[in-house]
Design goal:
- The chain has 304 residues and is an alpha/beta fold.
- 51% of the residues lie in helices and 13% in strands.
- The protein has an eight-stranded parallel β-barrel, surrounded by seven helices.
- It is globular, with a radius of gyration of 18 Å.
- The two termini are 24 Å apart.
- Mean pLDDT is 88; it is low at 297-304.
């Protein structure tokens, strides 16, 4: 049943029709727990609340269904407005983005130009931008563009997914760049030809890439709610004398709040991924696919 539900939500997340309906009816049925709102101001207030108890953030203006150059330019403009709002409000937050929202599926040149505009703005504000990794079809081109951007910008990082077979080699290839990486397990449905199908294999590969990137001396964001992975990381950095300034834990807005606060009390940096915007449906479906407990939360809200 869990697998059936996971596949169903992953498929719904890619549906253009379902996405249009979600935009029409707004943040209902529990989505507001995981999405900070539809406006920049709502997201800034959410980050301000996180900052008050010691957590930092990364804001993401949600947008995955971009089919025209005009929409891609609008999405880039929203990223720039978000960076401006972070700077003017004084909240502690980076920016995360998906390159498909900037026109990657329309034109590589369009996407790169949008990325450079955003990175120029971030550099002006002394801020940092994280490129979210998407499905396997976008993996290679995302890494290629990241390498191109790193020739000019040092305020950009990218995400690496533990469930892909290629990931260990990607970590090695990015070493020369001194890449700032967010390491995740991976949330997209992929073929067993390119990704580990078993959770245990993903977990083991995740531990290996955490070890590898930390030992190479590069900044590492460990993005997981898995307490076993978090405990493993804490023990590993302690036994290998890795400075606390070299890594951070990252978690999603609305998930494992108590764990986030506990890690802050222990002295670790915790960054919360805070999504906002009207194009929230695909993101929400992936959160439901990841954890059955999220589904029951939504169902309870519907009956209320």
């Amino acid at each position: 049943m869990e697998l059936i539900m996971k596949n169903m939500f992953q498929s719904l997340g890619k549906s253009r029709t379902a996405n249009r309906l979600a935009k029409k009816y707004g943040l209902r049925f529990g989505a507001a727990r995981f999405v900070a709102g539809e406006t920049i101001q709502q997201s800034i207030e959410a980050v301000r609340g996180l900052n008050q108890d010691g957590r930092v953030a990364t804001l993401d203006h949600l947008g995955e269904f971009v089919f025209s150059e005009e929409e891609a330019l609008e999405s880039a403009a929203m990223c720039i407005q978000t960076l401006d709002a972070i700077a003017s409000s004084g909240v502690k937050s980076n920016l995360s983005l998906k390159m498909t929202s900037l026109g990657l599926d329309i034109s590589r040149e369009l996407c790169v130009n949008n990325m450079k505009r955003i990175l120029d703005c971030a550099r002006q504000h002394g801020n940092f931008v994280r490129i979210d990794m998407e499905d396997y079809a976008h993996c290679q081109i995302s890494l290629d563009i990241y390498r191109e951007l790193r020739q000019e910008y040092d305020n950009v990082g990218i995400v690496i997914q533990a469930y892909l077979f290629r990931t260990m080699q990607d970590i090695d290839d990015l070493h020369a760049l001194g890449a700032n990486l967010r390491l995740v397990k991976g949330a997209y449905k992929e073929s067993p030809q390119v990704a580990f199908p078993e959770k245990s294999a993903v977990d083991e590969n995740y531990k290996k890439i955490i070890q590898k990137h930390l030992l190479k001396g590069h900044y590492t964001a460990i993005a997981s709610h898995d307490e076993a992975i978090i405990h493993f990381t804490k023990e590993f950095v302690r036994s290998n004398f890795i400075f606390i300034e070299q890594f951070e834990f990252q978690m999603l807005y609305g998930i494992c709040e108590d764990l986030q606060k506990q890690l802050v009390k222990e002295g670790y940096r915790v960054r919360v991924y805070v999504p906002y915007g009207v194009d929230w449906f695909g993101y929400f479906m992936r959160r439901l696919a990841e954890r059955p407990a999220n589904v029951w939360f939504v169902l309870k809200n519907m009956f209320k």
